[in-house]
Amino acid sequence: MANLTAVTAFLLRGFSPVPELQLLSTATFLLIYLATVLGNITIVAAVTHDARLHTPMYFFLKHLSLVDICSVSTTLPRALVATMLGSREISLCACASQLFAFVCLGSTECFLITSMAFDRCLAIYKPLVYTAIMSPQTCVSLVAVAWGSGLLFSAFHTANTFSLPFCGPNVIEHFFCDIPPLMRLACANADAHEAAGSTASGCIIMSCFALTVLSYVRIVATVFQIHSTAGRWKAFSTCSSHLATVLLFYGTGSSAYMQPAASYSPMQGRVAAVFYSVLTPTLNPLIYSLRNKDMKGALKKLYLQVPF
Fold it and tell me: Which residues contact 301 (CB under 8 A, 6 or more apart)?
C-alpha cells in the first residue's frame, strides 16, 4: 500500500463506452438538457407571474423545478463539454463538489416531494383548516427544512465516499461522479462505508416514502367518502400530477442508492442514472402542465406575453 500513489484526478468514461455512439448520445443529451431547462424555467416563470398560482402546491412546484434545473445542470453540461472537447479528466475536488451538489439536490427533491404529499393530503382531508395550517410561513419552513436536510445528507455521503483512499485505477465508469462507481475505485475495503451509506439512504428514502404513502392512504380514504363521482374525480385530480411524480422519482432513483456496490453494473448504472438524473427533471414540467388546467392557463398567458 505504501508504494501506491494517491489519485488527484479521475477520468469520466462518458455517456457510452462505444466511441461511435458518443456523438449521437451527446447530441441527444444536449437537446434533452435544453428542453429540461426551458421547461422548468417556464414552470417557475408561470408560477411567479400568475397570481392564481400563488398557493402552497405551486410554491412547492416552483422549488421542485428550481431543484430540477440545478440538478440536471450539475451533471450534463460538464459531460457534454468533456465529450465534445475530448477532455474527460475531472479533478478530485471537482468530483467531490459534483457529488455533493448532485446528492444534495436529489435528497432535497425527495424532501420536497414528501412536503407536497403532505400538502395534498391536508387540502383534501382537512380543507377547512388547510389555509390556516399551510400558511406562507409554514411553506417557507418546509422548503428550508428540505434544503437543510439535503445539505446534511449530502455532506455525510460526500465525506463517507471521499474518506476512502483512491490510488488507481482512476476511470469512473459513468458520465458524472456518482457514489456506486466511485466506491468501486477505492483501494481499500469499502464494506463499512458502503453499509453506512446504504443505511443512511435507506432510512431517508424509506421514511420519506412511508410518509408519502401514508398521505395517499388518507387521501384515498377521504376520496372514497365523497358520495358523488364528480366530487371524487375532482378531489383525486388535484393530486394526480404529484402521484405521477412520486412514482417516477421513487421508481427510478431509489434503487440506485440502495443496492450493494459489489452488484453494481456500469451499463445498468448509466441507464438508471439517465432515468433518475435526466428524464425525471425533463418529464416533471410535462406532468404538471398537461394534466393541470390552471397551469395550462398560466402557460398560455405567459406565452402570449412573450414578444416574437
Answer: 46, 49, 50
